[in-house]
Amino acid sequence: MGTPTNSPLLLHTAAQGESRAAAVGRDEWLFTPLGEPRGYIQPHTLSELWFHTGTACNLACPFCLEGSRPGDRRLARVTFADLVPFIDEGAALGVRQFSFTGGEPFLVRDLVRILEYALALAFLQGSSVLRQRSLQGIRRGQAAPCDLDGGQRSLQGGRHDAQQGGR
After folding, report:
1. CA angle at 146 for the pair 145 and 151, rounded to the nearest 5°
2. Does a structural domain hold residue 60?
3. 62 inside domain
4. Residue 86: CB partners within 8 Å, gap ≥ 6?
5. What are 99's strand-pairing partners?
6. Is residue 31 part of a domain?
7. Residues 42-86: pLDDT tens digits?
8. For the chain, what is the domain count?
9. Which residue of 10, 57, 74, 161 could cross-link 103, Cys pair, CB 3.0 to 4.6 Å?
């Protein structure tokens, strides 16, 4: 299967690459300010695709890289219709893992539907039963076990929890 030239994902990625190259010069990003080569992996396939779901968050952590907080509207929350074309294209290009970040992805009204859709295309392997149960629990508003293999964890323990409000 060929890669579509009018693909939204590829056009967006190419535009980002061109603007980055124009900002620093075509080859300058390959080297450090001291002229040493930067670490670089030549992509041969797209295996992971991240989606930024918006900037709203239910917490106001002072260390938040994104600066998200309650009521933050800098980036609108994504919808199912927003992401389906990118999920479809990612799956067609061989993406095996879709990741969601933000603000707080679970503030997105369509998130369970988005996760179910992505799960059907890319994640039906190994722990899919656990994931399906987690999604069912989330849909019912109940606590459910979650697969946190890809989760980000703080190395600051109690300090981190205190800054988050004891979460």
Report:
1. 150
2. yes
3. yes
4. 8, 9, 49, 51
5. 50
6. no
7. 777 788 888 999 999 999 888 888 888 999 989 889 999 999 999
8. 1
9. 57
